[in-house]
Fold:
Amino acid sequence: MMKSNSIQIMPDEVVEYLSLAQVANLCSISQEEAKELIEYGAIHFDRMVADEGFLSITRLEPLRVACKLRQDYDLDLFTVAISVGHLETIAGLERQLQSCRALIQSL
Structure:
């Protein structure tokens, strides 16, 4: 089991963070490919500790999906970076839609 770092932000809110090595492992990419994705802006660190970046676990799924698409369709890393951006946008819109539906149902 891969250990992640937990940080209590506010009462009842725990956020998990993963190191770049953990992210690369979970996405089945090399450290060099992960660094290239940082350069392309597909990986954004949410926390820095002693010059090591950590990614929030909540941001992992779009990256994993994009890396899976890369393997399935032999995409280059730049296309993965573009895909991550679109997948993050879709996830944000889905969260907004859920909030709107919950609001409507509570009326």
